[in-house]
Amino acid sequence: MAKKWNIETLAVHAGAEVDEATGAVTPPIHMSTTFERAKDGSYAHGYVYTRSNNPTRERLERALATLEGGEEAICFASGSAAAATIFHALHMGHHIIAPDDMYHGVRKMLNTTFAPWGLQMSFVDMTHPKNVVDALQPNTRLIWVETPSNPLLKITDIKLLAKIAHGHGAFLVVDATWTPATVQRPLALGADLVVHSSTKYLSGHSDVLGGAVIARKKGRFVERIRHIQEAEGAVPSPFDCWLTLRGLRTLPYRMRAHCENAGKVAAFLDAHPYVALVHYPGLDMHPGHRVAQAQMQQFGGMLSFEIIGGAPAAMKLCANLELFTRATSLGGIESLIEHRASTEGPESTAPQGLLRVSVGLEHPDDLIADLKQAFYKIRA
Ligand SMILES: *Cc1c(COP(=O)(O)O)cnc(C)c1O
């Protein structure tokens, strides 16, 4: 697909070619698990078996590679499966560096699955690149970045970390679940791989589980990830691929509104007397604001804040809300609010008074009015 087009155009047209067989404008969903061989034994259309490849999944992979600006995209049944495949593509005895604040599922996977398997790991505060340099070991093969991080929205300088990684012969991987390509472009900043939980913004409607790895360049490590996708089979169903493609078409416009709304909600919370701290990189006072301004096109649709009064006040506020849904996850059209420490469980490092918000596509005035009344009722 032509590179000169803007991302809104790419989002509408990438992997959206008219169906050659029927002229259908929207893509067919190819549910078939298997494909016929010709009389001479060849596979006329190139498809053999859906675990290996499927036309609907292929469309999604092409669309994601186009949007993120990579040479190849590889889709999975979930974001966790995408992450696990990257770690699995390393070897026992390799060392990775990951952020001290990161999506708890991936941290848990590293500690409970990949540490016993033989991967070595250090968790460091990546807001200070020096900590990453200090953690490098001769066997460090991969640096994993999440920026803004979950749930504290810490900001990491992607360009600088790419330099550090490449100077050491390591890969830089960015979990870009919170920041699709209209918000931040890690591959253009030097990252080797981008990981997405497409469960979130890419599909965008809280109705499909999926994941993807997008590579800046093809190469042996990417081939290995592709091989594991096929061999271990954590692939998305054709229907889920189709739903994700459908979501992608509106991604840039949804992201614009998510980010605008989040900025307004963050400003309201920042001024509220019951709020001790707002974590949102769009705020001037955020310690990562400068770096975020330089590397993000928008500041994202996610924020968290710490309420005065700890967990009891946080729970009370959530109970008082009428418009926000009390649920985990993010990136859907509806606003979600979550007490992160109790979701993550006893090992959680999230502050007890912290609430994480996925700001949806409702009118921002309505979201702010709902928060206002919920804060007011805490007092009563
Ligand atoms: C949700 C999420 C994941 C995991 O994705 P699943 O699709 O739930 O497996 C990974 N990273 C981040 C940042 C997430 O928000």
Description:
The protein is α/β, with parallel strands linked by helices and 380 residues long. It has 13 helices and 12 strands. Helix 2 runs parallel beside helix 8 and helix 11 packs across helix 13. The radius of gyration is 21 Å and the shape is globular. 49% of the residues are buried. The structure holds pyridoxal-5'-phosphate. The site of pyridoxal-5'-phosphate has 16 residues, from helix 3 and helix 4.
Low-pLDDT regions: none
Shape: globular
Q: Pairing-aware structural class of the strands and helices?
A: alpha/beta
Helix coverage percent = 25-40%
How much strand? 15-25%
Which small-molecule ligands are present, each listed once?
pyridoxal-5'-phosphate
Q: For the largest beta sheet, what order do the strands appear in spatially?
A: 1-7-6-5-4-2-3
Largest sheet: 7 strands, mixed
Mean pLDDT: 97
| Spatial separation of the terminal alpha carbons | 58 Å
DSSP summary: helix tally: 13
> Care to count the β-strands?
12
Relevant terms:
binds pyridoxal-5'-phosphate; five-stranded mixed β-sheet; seven-stranded mixed β-sheet; 380 residues; alpha/beta; single chain; 12 strands; 13 helices; 38% helix
